[in-house]
Design brief:
This protein has about 270 residues and is mostly helical. The protein is built from 11 helices and no strands. α3 packs across α8 and α3 crosses α9. The protein starts with 7 loop residues before the first helix and ends in a 7-residue tail after the last helix.
Length: about 270
């Protein structure tokens, strides 16, 4: 079992983001878009992190800036991990799938994810968050699948998989019943890496103002919008930047330590 203490950073990030979202929904009169003072006012008792470039309260925007950004990253990481796990197990079981996977991986390595996202967002301005989803899945699944294939290759050579193939088990049964249950630690590791990568991909899209449908108060856009006032109120840009970094570090610690505490189950 993973040590719960090592999950505390990720839990704290999740609690802060969910708590901020709920507070914004339930608090009467809460409006992070309302100007409350002069631009780039330094932190004070009334405004804990000061104000931004148009006089909005930075702390109010900080509270609600992570929900949409991290939710999109979470869904993208989950999709890449699930699809990569299934494709990797198939590639370990069937050489023909392995050949296709090599082609996909060779093609994905030639396409920068950020460039592909920018091109897709410019070509289809109304795509919204789908631009990130398509980019992340198409370019991320082949890499994830190669990791899962390497781990699954060991499982496929075990006696229980050979016995299952010998009695004529179907391919879905082999994948979901005989191979994937032995890759739990790999799933955790890949999901952690993909969650960090997805966080940076979504943050980059928001920072570059790619139309992805996130609120303007999201952390990444706040960094860009307030970078010009660093000398006046640095917290308007530094606080959301630190939040993105803290979330990425917390996710990495949680998943890496979980793998260390829960070794791969040896197939029988």
């Amino acid at each position: 079992m993973p040590n719960p203490v090592r999950l505390l950073p990720a839990g704290a990030v999740a609690a802060f983001v969910i708590g901020g979202y709920l507070y914004a929904q339930l608090a009467a009169g809460f409006d992070p878009e309302r100007s409350v003072a002069v631009p780039f006012l330094r932190p004070s008792v009334e405004h804990w992190l000061g104000t931004d470039k148009v006089g909005r309260d930075v702390f109010d925007r900080f509270l609600v800036g992570g929900a949409g950004l991290l939710l999109v990253a979470l869904l993208l990481a989950a999709a890449v991990t699930v699809l990569g796990a299934v494709l990797g197990a198939l590639a370990a079981l069937r050489p023909s799938v392995d050949t296709v996977l090599r082609w996909l991986t060779d093609g994905a390595v030639l396409i920068p994810a950020v460039l592909a996202m920018l091109v897709l967002g410019a070509a289809i301005p109304d795509a919204g968050v789908a631009a990130i989803g398509v980019t992340g899945v198409v370019l991320g699944v082949p890499y994830a699948a190669k990791v899962f294939q390497s781990a699954a290759a060991v499982v496929v050579m075990s006696s229980h998989v050979e016995a299952a193939e010998g009695i004529g088990e179907t391919l879905p049964r082999l994948v979901f019943g005989e191979v994937l249950p032995h890759l739990r630690a790999t799933v955790v590791a890949v999901f952690g890496l993909r969650l960090v990568e997805a966080t940076y991909l979504v943050s980059t899209a928001a920072f570059l103002h790619v139309p992805i449908g996130l609120p303007g108060s999201n952390w990444a856009q706040s960094v860009r919008d307030n970078a010009g006032g660093l000398l006046l109120n640095p917290w308007a840009a530094v606080a959301p930047a630190l939040a993105i970094a803290a979330a990425s570090i917390a996710f990495t610690v949680a998943t890496r330590r979980s793998v260390a505490d829960e070794p791969v189950e040896a197939p029988r």
